[in-house]
From TrEMBL:
Role played: Catalyzes the conversion of acetate into acetyl-CoA (AcCoA), an essential intermediate at the junction of anabolic and catabolic pathways. AcsA undergoes a two-step reaction. In the first half reaction, AcsA combines acetate with ATP to form acetyl-adenylate (AcAMP) intermediate. In the second half reaction, it can then transfer the acetyl group from AcAMP to the sulfhydryl group of CoA, forming the product AcCoA.
GO function terms (MF aspect): acetate-CoA ligase activity; AMP binding; ATP binding; metal ion binding
Domain AMP-dependent synthetase/ligase: 84-468
InterPro entries for the chain: Ac_CoA_lig (IPR011904), ACAS_N (IPR032387), AMP-bd_C (IPR025110), AMP-bd_C_sf (IPR045851), AMP-binding_CS (IPR020845), AMP-dep_synth/lig_dom (IPR000873), ANL_N_sf (IPR042099)
N6-acetyllysine sites (modified residues): K611
Family recorded in the similarity comment: Belongs to the ATP-dependent AMP-binding enzyme family.
Organism: Lysobacter spongiicola DSM 21749
The protein, known as: Acetyl-coenzyme A synthetase
Amino acid sequence: MSPSPDIHPVDPDVAANARIDRDAYERLYAESVADPERFWGRVGERLEWMRTPTRIKDVDFDARNLHIRWYADGELNASVNCLDRHLEARGDKTALVFEPDDPEHGAQHISYRALHERVCKLANALRSLGVRKGDRVTIYLPMIPEAAVAMLACARVGAIHSVVFGGFAANSIADRVADCESKLIITADEGRRGGRTVPLKANVDAALKLPGTNSVETVLVVRHTGAAVDMQMPRDRWYDAVTKDQPAQCEPERMNAEDPLFILYTSGSTGKPKGVLHTTGGYLVYASYTHELVFDLREDDVYWCTADVGWVTGHSYIVYGPLANGATALMFEGVPNHPDTSRFWQVVDKHQVTIFYTAPTAIRALMRDGDGPVKRTSRSSLRLLGSVGEPINPEAWRWYYEVVGDSRCPVVDTWWQTETGGIMISPLPGATDLKPGSATRPFFGVRPALVDTNGAILEGEAEGNLVILDSWPGQMRTVYGDHQRFIDTYFRTYPGTYFSGDGCRRDADGDYWITGRVDDVINVSGHRIGTAEVESALVSHPKVAEAAVVGFPHDIKGQGIYAYVTLLAGEMSSEELRKELVAHVRSEIGPIATPDHLQWAPGLPKTRSGKIMRRILRKIAENAPDQLGDTSTLADPSVVQSLVDERLGR
Ligand code: WT7
């Protein structure tokens, strides 16, 4: 465990102009953990409050008395902070640049003033449709400006938005709508991705035929591709029709800092996805502050995060963080390889992007195509690169740094989670020496620690499970509708701490290296998929008796999905059935859960008490049958040999 010899010291020019240099980092970090009240009280002043908070931090991580409150007597509105506040000084500044899937369709530039007007009109429309403070609204949209408008309009009227990624199928939409009892859905006729269309409205129609979705009164439909869709009156309304005659001003709802801002569903190791709930004040302070410092934001930056608004990265670092900071943020509807694999860099040149934030999976996929598609473009506007979503392998880091950034732009490898609301461990470009593959240092106020499986805290150079010892303002507050699950998932494993679910190593310099999930969550292309969800989709097929799903190393996706399937007695395995099962998972959950491999399993390795030994299945999937470890507790050891034989013969 020697420290990486590959260290990129802070560039002196970057440090000279940065908000935070090395000394400032050390001083502020020490202050932030010594006196969080004072530190976060001061940082909280960055927002515009309707009532200034006086109670800054009120937290207990003890599971018996768990509570997390920040700025609890403060009042504010998130949309006011993202829009109204900028109108005077930045009214004509571009808030959003929209780059469509098809480059021929032309980009749009939406000023803060124009965005404010669009948000107010939709907010008024939502009110006219009966949406009130605390109501839940599901947003199922492509990466078009209306997605940001919809989120901010919800925030304006105090409705809690739940954005569902456009890659989820009807069942997944229905589960999420049912769990939070959404009153209204905002969708589009279709989405566009890589030259193909996604039938969003049809998916919503299918979802609303499923049980548990009766709460939905209205479906607002954005006309995007112009495709014909089935409009079911009076439930379905055209977005244009309901917004066009609304007033361009809308009184914002006064929200308590601890009132919910949004729910975002994410996969856990067991059961259905959890509704991660974020509140208004602490979340916005944290998203905007991390966005400003990690990206060392300047007034004239053009900032581009390639994530989808359906994930937390899109929430915090396309919408709330950048807009609260008055930045210019680019929204891209497309994919990295359409029309060709030079697209990202063409967009960088076209819009003179200065900060670029993407996921390792995209970097690895583009890297496979060589340097040519990158080198055909200038990229001279770039000054900072970011990575998020999964561990970035040093090889991909170096390609990103050397080829994309011409060895000129620092790379910030940002570790965080849906649950954390914002970046937790990351270099600051003017303060931190970079090491390919390491997320390096904690952000202000973040107290990471490594524990062994007994919960003992490990000091110095060590490897263990990553916990956070104290709260930060952007932390999730509960699992929507299931507070007990919140406590059990995050605060019971290592009492008194927040457990991330990640494994991690700390080197001799004190830098953190995330090693990946230690629970039954698979990180596929930076997206979390619960093994339990894929298993339950598989066993819902009439021919399947049992299924076990594990992750395995995948060159591009980071991890792939490997499914072992046992058929019901009398059912015959076939290539056709394999395809049918893969298609079944896609239609049950969505294309993002597509199994990469599906292996027939006459039996699954189980303990005598019937527990599936996933450790063994992981090793077989990895093609490492010599590392199966102790198999003496298996009820029927012969099962393993047949799985290994089948795997080798594949
Ligand atoms: C999981 C959280 C945070 C926004 C996108 C994903 C992994 C995330 C990194 C990183 C290594 C990372 C972790 C984490 N992860 N960023 N920079 N280095 N691993 O959010 O879907 O909630 O997933 O993604 O395993 O627990 P998410």
